[in-house]
Structures are given as C-alpha cells and as structure tokens.
Amino acid sequence: MTHAFWFRRDLRLADNKALNIAAQAAKSVGHTQLPLLYALDHAKFEALEGIRQHSLVESLRALDVDTSGVLGLVSDTGLERLAARMADIAADASITTLHATRAFDPEGVAEQNAIGVALRDRGIFLQLDDSYYAVAPGSIAKGDGTAYRVYTPFSKVWFDYAAALRPEPRVTIEFQPRLAGTAPVSNLAASKPAPFKVVAGEAFALRTLERFKARALHDYDTLRDRADLSGTSHLSHALAFGEIHPRTILAALRDLPGHNVYRKEIAWREFYADVLWHNPDSLTEYYDPKYASMRYDTGSEADRRLAAWQQGRTGFPMVDAGMRQLLETGWMHNRVRMIVASFLVKDLHIEWQHGARWFERNLSDYDPASNSHGWQWTAGCGTDASPYFRVFNPITQGQKFDPRGDYVRRYVPELRHIYGAAVHEPWLLLAGLSQGYPAPIVDHAAERIEALARLAELKQA
Questions:
Q1: Which domain holds residue 253?
Q2: Do 293 and 310 have their domain in common?
Q3: Which of 228, 262, 278 is the last residue of a domain?
Q4: Is residue 190 part of a domain?
Q5: How much is the pLDDT for 220?
C-alpha cells in the first residue's frame, strides 16, 4: 500500500480532483483499493455550537454511507497530537503518499502544515492538489503580479477562468476497509443539541441544486434579497463542507436564466478567499487598519447590548428575526446578515469581530473568508467596503425586503398578532408590544448621527 486520501472540506466523491489524483496514483502502482481518512481535533469539535457539530457529523455520515462504511476517523485533542496520530496510522499502513485537497485559509493551512511535517518525519509525503474553489486563491493577479484589492476587476478575470472549467468525473476505484488505528464514523456523535435534525451530504446537495434551478434561479436577480421568500440557492452549507464543488454548480447552471447573477455571488466567495490568502491576519484584524482606531463602545452597557443582539432582543424586528433565525436554523438570509451587521457596528458601536465570532459559533455554513470579509464589508473596513457612512436603517430595510412582515412573524412570535408591514414598527401600535416584545434598545436616528460623528473623529485624527 502506498497511497491514501485524507478528506477535509471536500466531503464528496464527484468533482473531487484531489481524490481522483489519489485514485490514479494508486492504480498506477497496481493497487485496486484506496484507504480514506478524516482527521478530527476533539478540542475544536467540542468548541463548536450544537448546530455546527450536527452539521459536520451528518455530512461525514453521509460520506461514510457513500463509501460503504470504510471512512476511517482519526481523532485526538490538539493539532500537534492529531498530526502525530495521522503520521503513526499512515506509517503503520505503509503509506508513502497521503493525498488531500489544499486549504488556503489560516486554520486549514496550519492544519496541513502540521500534518505535513509529522508525515515528513516518518518518510511520508503529503500531496496537496486543487482547492475548495473554482479558481484557487492566488491564481489571479494583476499585470504587475500583485493581488487584486477590488472585486470588479478580479471578477472579470475570474469569469474568464471559470468559463473554461468543467467538473471532474466521479472517482472510479474501490475503497480500502478502514485502516488499523482508525475509528468508524458512527463513533462520532455531537455532544450538544441542535434545534432540528440536520440533513446533509453530497446527494442532498445535488438535490438542493436541482431544486434551486427549478424554484428560484429564474427570478434570482430580483428575489434573492427578499428575506420572506425562498429566493436563494441554500447551497452555502454544502459549499462550506465541500459536499458540492463550485465547478459543479457553475457547469449545471451555465446558460440558464439567472445564472450570471448567481455566478457573481460565487465570484464574491472566491474573491474573499483570495483576499484572505494574501492577508491571513484579516481573519480577525482590520483589513483597513485605520478603523481599529475608531471609538467603539465597551463595558457593561456594551456587553448588555451585545447580548440583546445575540439573542434577538434589540426591539428592532428585522434585526431580531435574523438573529433568531440564526439560533433556530444555523443559517441567516444574506441580506439580513448585512442588516444585523450594520446594526451591531453602527447602531450599537461594537467592533465587527464580536459579530464575526458569534456567526462562526452558530452558522452551519461558516466559511472563514466569507464570514470575516462579509463583516468587514458592512463595517466599512474591508475590500470594496460599503462606505462607513452607509448606515442600514433596520426599519426601512425590513419594509423593503420583508414587505408583508412574514419573515418577522415567522421568527418573532411576540409580533404575530400584528398584520402586514406594521410589524416592522410595533411600538407605534397601541397593542404592539403587548405580547412581551421589547422596546427598541437604541434610537436608530440618534445612533446614525453618532456613528457619523465617530467617523469624522477618525478622519481628523
């Protein structure tokens, strides 16, 4: 035995280039079977919220079924011990090359570096191929060789790259029974509850893609921002776990009505991955460092307001519906993500990192680059940033993107007695707050003025 495959954020058998390369390498030396591994750091797994634990477990179980139950789980606590464990198992199985998909985010790079070093010390080579993206981060550069800092020129080059891509064929090789020292995936169980049963896996992702084509693609350009309608693809979870590759999506939607607008959303995801690859500190630090000097609120009152935001108790229905959707489903509509982010940074004057960490804890579709740079876009400190002086009005945003109030009533039961768009301003109704919904914790108009004043301070500094 000389070759094996390590699954990471690529939990699928179709359109998996690194897996195909591993299979071909095994066949080239006369092997008819390929061992499969998945590495899990127990400490990181236990740190996840319940919805994220269940999402990973169900995705792995679906892959295990697809591979006839031979996926070997390698687990330990801490990256150093996990890397040593992987190296021991590979060495005992006489593996000389471990194949995997290359990661480009800081945590993924740290993981592959640690495991690569441990393998090297045992005489084993870690071969990394492809990426989680249609166009790998770092592949696109300006004429002078530097990275793009603005989306539009990046996307124009990206479109040319993406147009030529075709999905990889489904892997054709038998899979080796679990290696000695690995555990069955069925041994992995979530230690925290989830608000609902998670359905995941490659087959579900492909069905979701087909439903999107039939349900929402035709009107995607006009309805994707409506929080009250099912106008988005619902593929973000599958992309986050690699249950489907962007190549597959782009090929399936090519030339269909609405495809170009959706393609731009894929390009944004890949632009942010490219930005993070070139600027790994921007995962947690300001892309535009001058905004780190802005005056933000701290202390007990800021903590109280942050908690109200986290639990969907701010008194602004569109904000609270989004935050409760996150807690109830592990997902939030993209337009609403911008609304709640603007509210945290510019109405509550709390730094974006607090919001990004809360999303990381709770989003089942968490992607490090999209999360951090999406937050920085709204906070005015990222690439292509929405200007800091653009402050989302949570009331008018609700009226525009939830015009009948259905989205708010779905997630805020204290307001279900209010009919129509009036739900966005319940404090104006005599019985609007009678069911226990809180009054607004801030005056939006006043906080908008305050946010602009703090921006002026920053410019004068």
A1: 134-166+201-278
A2: yes
A3: 278
A4: no
A5: 93
Same domain, 312 and 413: yes
| In-domain check, residue 186 | no
Residue 85 token pair = 């464990």
How long, in residues, is the chain?
461
Identify how many contiguous H helices and E strands the chain contains and give both numbers: 19, 8
Which helix H or strand E contains 138, and what residues bound it?
none
Token pair recorded at residue 127:
């071969």
Number of domains composing the chain: 3
Could you give the 3-state DSSP secondary structure of residue 312? coil
Name the residue with tokens 């986290």.
310
Say what the pLDDT of residue 385 is: 64
* Residues 126, 145 share a domain: no
The CATH number covering residue 419 comes to: 1.10.579.10
Mean pLDDT for the chain overall: 96
Alpha carbons 49 and 47: distance in angstroms, whole number? 7
pLDDT for the residue numbered 83: 98
317: tokens are: 């229905």
DSSP helix, strand, coil percent of the chain (3-state; round to 5): 55, 5, 40
Entry pTM:
0.95
Query: Which tokens hold the place of 21?
Result: 């390369």
Question: Looking at the structure, do residues 432 and 343 belong to the same domain, yes or no?
Answer: yes
Please, is 154 exposed, middle or buried when counting C-beta atoms within 10 Å of its C-beta (0-12, 13-18, 19+)?
A: buried
Per-residue pLDDT tens over the stretch 126-184: 999 999 999 999 999 999 999 999 999 999 999 999 988 999 999 999 999 999 999 99
Are 400 and 229 in contact by the 8 Å Cβ rule? The answer is: no
Percent of the chain exceeding pLDDT 90 equals 94
| pLDDT value at residue 384 | 79
Residue 16, φ and ψ in degrees, nearest 5? -120, 90
Please give the C-alpha separations between residue 432 and each of 246, 314, 378, 385, 417, in angstroms, as whole numbers: 45, 15, 30, 36, 8
Question: CA torsion sign, 330 to 440 to 226 to 230?
Answer: positive
Classify residue 94 as left (phi > 0), alpha (psi -120 to 50) or beta.
left
Helix (H) or strand (E) holding 399: helix 394-401
183-184/72-76 β-pairing: antiparallel
In a shared domain, residues 139 and 262: yes
- Looking at the predicted structure, is the pLDDT value of residue 392 above 90? yes
Give the list of residues 6+ apart from residue 5 with CB closer than 8 angstroms, or none.
Answer: 18, 19, 22, 23, 34, 35, 36, 37, 98, 99, 100
Mean pLDDT of 428-441: 97
